[in-house]
Amino acid sequence: MKIYVLSTSNKLYSTIRILDEGQKRGHEMHLVNHTKCSIKIGEGKREIIFQEQNIIDAVDAIIPRIGTLVGRHGAAIVKEFEMNNVYSTARSLGILRAQNKVRTLQILNRKKLPIPNTVFAINPENIDEQISLLGGTPVIIKLQEGTQGLGVILAETRQSAKSIIDTFYKMNASILIQEYIKESNGEDIRVFVVGGQIIATMKRIGAEGDFRSNIHRGGTGVPAVLSKQEKKMAIKACQYLNLDVAGVDIIRSKKGPLIIEVNSSPGLKGIEHYTGINIAESIIKLIERKCEIQKRKTR
């Protein structure tokens, strides 16, 4: 098959691993930098132009690795492939939903999946009220479109929370405020879901003195065992967001497990390293299954 990996660089670990595993399984793999693609619509044939060529035809599947900074453009590229009946491991709508933390939490909450108590507002005049809605400090303040632990701040006092929130509002930054789950102890669980199946799980442990557990922020990982409830939560979250490949982040609280985030472009480096599981191969195998089903339907 001919498979495109939508990524901004061929030097990123996850991109390299997916390209390599696809080639090992005999597929024609291509790196396509979605930020350098142009879409032409209107009269005549639909076109996605990359390196002066229309690449929309004669491709079997795409694997989007879309970052938040270019999320809308990347999703538009994915949508154009979808409209040309090309299989994608992440639907364009799923990418946009997952990259907006508030939208993700709204969907999960509507579907009765447990999440931390969260406040979303843009009113700088009632910050005290917003904090009180979460039971007071400490609170977690997050940029809506942050990633890899960036834009996530722990405010331990009401005064510091008010100062941080007010600063973000003045910068016109979109934020959300969440209750601080002290018992999570700077740990969370990354669940890697491929094609509705849990492929790997890893407990991420934050660096000493850091409440964030992200590997990119100096955290470490160990393999994790999930409860039945946690497995069901992770799989359902991906279904509701329309993502065939995703990383679901769960923290354990006194109230039970809570989903804090769903990543439509989860990194492979940490979880492959700490679990020894070949996730890149699982992604390629998923594409093989999906494309075979698609071919049967068109026969």
Would you spell out the secondary-structure blueprint of this structure?
Blueprint: E1 2-6, H1 13-24, E2 28-32, E3 38-40, E4 47-50, E5 53-54, E6 61-64, H2 71-83, E7 87-88, H3 92-99, H4 101-110, E8 118-119, H5 127-132, E9 139-143, E10 152-155, H6 158-170, E11 175-179, E12 187-194, E13 197-205, E14 220-223, H7 228-241, E15 245-253, E16 256-263, H8 269-275, H9 279-298
Parallel strand pairs: 1-2, 1-6, 6-7
Antiparallel strand pairs: 3-4, 4-5, 8-11, 9-10, 9-11, 12-13, 12-15, 13-14, 15-16
Which descriptors apply to this entry?
single chain; 299 residues; five-stranded antiparallel sheet; 9 helices; globular
